[in-house]
Specification:
The chain is α/β, with parallel strands linked by helices. 32% of the residues lie in helices and 16% in strands. InterPro entries: ComF/GntX_DNA_util-trans, PRTase-like, PRTase_dom.
Length: 229
């Protein structure tokens, strides 16, 4: 029996036949099936580029607008869940109120999907220095650090307001806040980089992160992965 981190109820974690006879250590589940059912997966019919809601065109409205800036160089993103009320409440408790234990819930929600996505470098979008000092933990790295080997090559400038504090128009007007840390080198000539973040809203944050990496690593194939859209 285990106690759900979200509702506090005791539950029996289901174990598959493969997990039962696997030589690899399996992470213990931390949320019950009832709580997990509140997080809705993105439907099969979605934007093929970013997993957003399809418009009457081939892409969603966000990607159509990004095409005006980037042309064919759109950032390919993969997301798992819809940003519904349940996910909103989870992220508020995790990020605004700094409930570090909830990183285990987010880790569990994406474990199976992320481990299927192969990359040479897994790069988390960094937390701002102000929020890092306030929370005492990096919200993005904490989610993914037990799932893949992270390469924390990106830094974020201090003194800029968080995206979560802005409306849609303000997000899109946000200035570049990311940079590649000095003295970072890599021996691979061509390689895949997977950017890791929690929420894809307009894509502004991830495009800024992609642009910062592309300046230093022009031959890299860069895509992104987020928990929800």
């Amino acid at each position: 029996m285990r106690r759900c981190l979200l509702c506090g109820q005791l539950f029996v974690a289901k174990v598959s036949f493969i997990q039962l006879f696997s030589w690899h250590k399996q992470e213990a589940k931390c949320i019950c099936s009832n709580c997990q059912s509140k997080y809705m997966r993105i439907p099969d019919k979605h934007c093929p580029n970013c997993f957003g809601k399809l418009s009457q065109n081939k892409f969603c409205l966000d990607c159509i607008n990004w095409q005006k800036i980037y042309g064919k160089k759109l950032l390919k993103n993969h997301s798992l869940y819809l940003y519904n009320e349940a996910f909103h409440d989870l992220m508020v408790n995790y990020k605004r109120y700094g409930d570090y234990a909830l990183h285990k819930v987010l880790e569990e929600l994406c474990r199976e999907d992320l481990t299927k996505r192969q990359a040479d470098l897994y790069v988390p979008v960094p937390t701002s220095p102000e929020h890092l000092e306030q929370r005492q933990f990096d919200t993005i790295s904490s989610i993914y650090s037990n799932l893949v080997s992270l390469t924390c090559v990106l830094g974020k400038k201090a003194g800029l307001s968080a995206q979560g504090e802005k409306n849609r128009a303000e997000r899109l007007r946000s200035e570049q806040s990311f940079f590649v840390k000095k003295n970072f080198t890599i021996n691979l000539k061509k390689y895949k980089i997977l950017l890791l973040d929690d929420i894809y809203t307009t894509g502004r944050t991830l495009y800024h992160a992609r642009d910062a990496l592309a300046e230093v690593f022009p031959n890299a194939k860069i895509s992104s992965f987020t928990l929800c859209r």
